[in-house]
Specification:
Layout lengths: L3 E10 L2 E11 L4 E5 L6 H9 L6 E6 L2 E2 L10 E5 L10 H12 L3 H14 L15 H13 L5 E5 L7 H18 L2 E6 L2 H7 L2 E6 L2 E6 L1 H6 L4 H6 L6 E9 L2 E10 L4 E4 L6 E10 L3 E8 L4 E7 L10 E6 L5 E3 L5 E3 L3
Parallel strand pairs: 3-8, 3-9, 6-7, 7-8
Antiparallel strand pairs: 1-2, 1-4, 4-5, 9-10, 11-12, 12-18, 13-17, 14-15, 14-17, 15-16, 18-19
Helix pairs in contact: 2-3, 2-4
């Protein structure tokens, strides 16, 4: 096991900068999720840690050793990809054992490592099968088993669940979290799915356009988003945003953005509300109902209600209000200027 240190890590392709200086110390046994939309640089950052991409500037250290110029095989890491990358002509056992055979380990040790990983991943009944005879979830387990048997210092996961259906994704992310905790191994995990990030991460890096917008524990990021981007990206449905002005001696002093999460917004009589609008449609989800509104300013907003609350009809005039201790305030550049209590 090992800690990973990123110090002002940068990446450019020619004159185009795609990673703009990432700093983070990842402790031994920590699971860090790198999350963000497509094209934000999250996979590029992971590939630099792996040695699959050269870095343009800064330093990457694994276990206290600078690895900038080391080949991937010299970094003591194992990667799990979204496409499994299994050898179709080999059995499950041989796929998991292949890297160990290349290292020249004794057959008895290889068999012991593979059997141990197979028990951990519930793959024992499938060791003689070929990948084509397995489900998507089983193939992903084989890919993880191949990484586990190597006993690396760190695991790197690049969108490993993106090829699975929704139900299997939920199951597999729980298994990955339990597996990482049981092994006590350091892990970097890339995803575009913010729910996946919230449920897996000890801490997360929220990225936008090659910049780490915020680094922190999931609930810290959710409760105290550093920017409007983070506030809108983390959370489903995303945070509502409304424009507001502050006055000084009757003159506009500053323009701010007020953010209110759907679960902290309340519907009220039009004369008592802070924001007026009308209902567009509602989504009844069972335990909760999401009421979608259009404000007088033409903005969209969402209120999360209990599934048993009285739900207003489409076209009905309504107003929004909220507890001031639960709202978020951002400046004109989208930076947090005031924490919610």
């Amino acid at each position: 096991m090992a800690e990973i240190a990123l110090s002002d890590v940068r990446k450019s392709y020619g004159k185009t900068a795609v990673i703009h200086g990432i700093d983070m110390d990842i402790t031994d046994g920590e699971l860090i999720v790198i999350v963000g939309p497509s094209g934000c640089g999250k996979s590029t950052l992971l590939r630099m840690v792996a040695g699959l991409e050269t870095i343009t500037g800064g330093q990457i250290a694994i276990g206290g050793r600078t690895v900038n110029d080391l080949e991937p095989r010299e970094r003591d890491i194992a990667m799990v990809f979204q496409n499994y990358a299994l050898y179709p002509h080999m059995s499950v056992f041989d796929n998991m054992a292949y890297g160990l055979k290349i290292q020249g380990l004794p057959k008895a040790e290889i068999a012991e490592r593979v059997d141990q990983a197979a028990r951990m991943l519930q793959l024992e009944p499938y060791l003689k099968r070929k990948p084509r005879q397995l489900s998507g979830g089983q193939r992903q387990r084989v890919a993880m088993g191949r990484a586990i048997v190597r006993k690396p210092a760190a695991f790197l996961f690049d969108e490993p669940l993106s090829n699975l259906d929704a139900k299997l994704r939920v199951q597999m992310r729980l298994e990955i979290k339990a597996l990482q905790r049981d092994l006590g191994v350091t892990a970097l995990y890339v995803t575009h799915d913010q729910v996946e990030a919230m449920t897996l991460a000890d801490r997360m890096i929220v990225m936008k356009d090659g910049v780490a917008e915020q680094i922190g524990a999931p609930l810290e990021v959710y409760d105290r988003p550093a920017t409007t981007f983070v506030a809108g990206f983390i959370g489903s449905p995303p945070m509502n945003f409304f424009k507001a002005q502050s006055l000084q001696n009757g003159v506009v002093d500053a323009v701010h953005t007020v953010g209110v999460r759907p679960e902290h917004a309340e519907l009220c009589a039009t004369e008592a509300g802070r924001i007026k609008g009308e209902v567009v449609f509602s989504e009844a989800l069972g335990a909760e109902t999401l009421v979608h509104l259009k404000t007088e300013d033409g903005d969209a907003a969402v209120v999360r209600l209990s599934g048993h609350d009285t739900i207003p009809s489409p076209g009905e005039p309504v107003a929004l209000t909220w507890d001031e201790t639960r709202r978020h305030l951002f400046d004109a550049d989208g930076r947090r200027v005031e924490a919610a209590a």
